[in-house]
Amino acid sequence: MKRVLISDPTLRDGSHAIQHQLNTQQLTLYAELAEEAGIPIIEVGHGNGLGASSLQLGESSLSDTQMLETCRNILNKTRLGIHVIPGFATINKDLKNALDIGVDVIRVASHCTEADITKRHIEYCRNREREVHGVLMMSHMAPPSELAAEACKMQGYGAQGIIIMDSAGAYLPDTVKSRISVLVAALDIPVGFHAHNNLGMAIANSMTALEAGATILDGTMRGFGAGAGNAQLEILIAVMEKMGYETGIDLFKLLDAADTAEDSFLKVPYVNSTSIVSGLTGVFSGFAKPVDRIAKKYNVDPKDIFYELGKRKVVAGQEDIILEVAVSLSQSRQPMI
Amino acid sequence: MKRVLISDPTLRDGSHAIQHQLNTQQLTLYAELAEEAGIPIIEVGHGNGLGASSLQLGESSLSDTQMLETCRNILNKTRLGIHVIPGFATINKDLKNALDIGVDVIRVASHCTEADITKRHIEYCRNREREVHGVLMMSHMAPPSELAAEACKMQGYGAQGIIIMDSAGAYLPDTVKSRISVLVAALDIPVGFHAHNNLGMAIANSMTALEAGATILDGTMRGFGAGAGNAQLEILIAVMEKMGYETGIDLFKLLDAADTAEDSFLKVPYVNSTSIVSGLTGVFSGFAKPVDRIAKKYNVDPKDIFYELGKRKVVAGQEDIILEVAVSLSQSRQPMI
């Protein structure tokens, strides 16, 4: 029986799906359900992580402190996790506060080619004796060898695991396999995969990651997450059971939990046409909501915006470019005088 | 460039998702969209195919004649297809009528171990010079060698292609690969795959089928179909383009068509907990609606019904067993006196 660590960012990546408007009742319910089903880690917070609530990225209805304390009060066996992007989250204010509240697992994340910015945050968490994983986002944008070099940096800073994210849902099984294999060979610490479903491959890519040696997987209930959503946790666990992997999660309780959570707040994501183009062009799934909003305002096709964003290779934090692209698409359609 | 024939049963398998209540406006719109996007074949009718409208399986709001004539009047390049299960569809009445209306492609289907019942229907269609494919449903229930033997029978009757259906959404890529490879080796005619998404594998399984030598794939817009739905056609085409397969479908027009059809009538299927259990236990996805209805009536968990149906290895046409199982589950919970 191969053991796999499951981390569930329903209350973090899912925030993207409802513009970061999770409330206390929803957090409480979900934390109770996760504890009951035996989910090892739940990640909580703004879609872009700790300290990311802002005009540019969208404002959370609750502060980081409110969200983390709500879940901390309930969780016992299930560990409390956060997603931390240096630049959004400062060490002295945001990270110190989160660790004081009692966060168990910290994921320090950067764009796939910028691991350098994670050094001080990783070291800070290790010094305070917490479990720290390094995360490389938009990992399809770097070739396997470069990804391995960046991951090795994070390992050097003290990361105890490396997760690569398919932030645009752009991977197919072959590209997952090549990247995970290279990372597993290059690192001495566990390797993980975080899928998105834009090309309908979230479950297949996750299983491929396991076959290639990954031992950490992310999944969210009903796939609740940015864009087309993540790997749907209940399916992931069902398929893993069928394939002989052990996670400690009770599948039946998980299925019941998903039904309850869906009734309460999970907006089920599905793969709409814009999400498909987002996956095809390799643009961050979290752009889906602002792109839809701005497309409507400027009366342009959101798919055309995603195509242009793909050409420009934009990444999270460059949301202002959406507006620029929409304006330019809208003007290019004006009749000549 | 490898050429793949796409057949789209949105207006047939999708009928399961809305209890066979498609109306003339929806059929008309969809046929126009399919024609515009260049979809090679659309399959039209009751969820269980020609002549299947009944109390037991659910009654269509339109007759087979009305549905087929509506689409026939619009289609030009796109060919008109039907799904035919001998036993539901008679030759002299149903099949003769459909061919008189001008159906182009006939799929004659049986349970995976009962190809014998397709002989006369296949021969009738060949005699009238139409394209005929043989379909083996619930194909996960037979091992590869038996499936190949049944497929060879259909080839012997005159079938010009063989499609295996994952009617329960129970396959994983490995099981698709082994079955398709054996079929491709055993047959002289094209082999196809029809996926369902209960275990999140519809797209991955379809791509695996192509790698193993299949040259016919089924997909429906937004995945509209029985249970957790089919392979989502827009994703399938996007991924196939990325992998270098040729289908003749215009991806952009298809994405627009899916948006339009969704606005008009496509109820987007998602993978709910019952669908996952249906895939795990290998029970026909088309049971989802009646199971939900009967579970509610007898106040039992639909997931428990699916587990019991899986143990009994039921197949389509045995819908009466749902009721029996629900009654027995409901009674087993009565307190002893």
Automatic annotation (TrEMBL), chains A, B:
Pfam families: DmpG_comm (PF07836), HMGL-like (PF00682). Keywords: Aromatic hydrocarbons catabolism, Lyase, Manganese, Metal-binding. The active site is at residue 16. It comes from the Bacteria. One of its GO terms (molecular function) is 4-hydroxy-2-oxovalerate aldolase activity. The keyword Manganese applies. It catalyses: (S)-4-hydroxy-2-oxohexanoate = propanal + pyruvate; (S)-4-hydroxy-2-oxopentanoate = acetaldehyde + pyruvate. Its EC number is 4.1.3.39. The record marks 12 as: Transition state stabilizer. Mn(2+) binds at residues 13, 194, 196. Substrate binds at residues 12-13, 167, 194. It is an enzyme of class 4 (lyase). Residues 4-255 form the Pyruvate carboxyltransferase domain. NCBIfam families: 4OH_2_O_val_ald (TIGR03217), PRK08195.1 (NF006049). Belongs to the 4-hydroxy-2-oxovalerate aldolase family. This is 4-hydroxy-2-oxovalerate aldolase. The gene is dmpG.
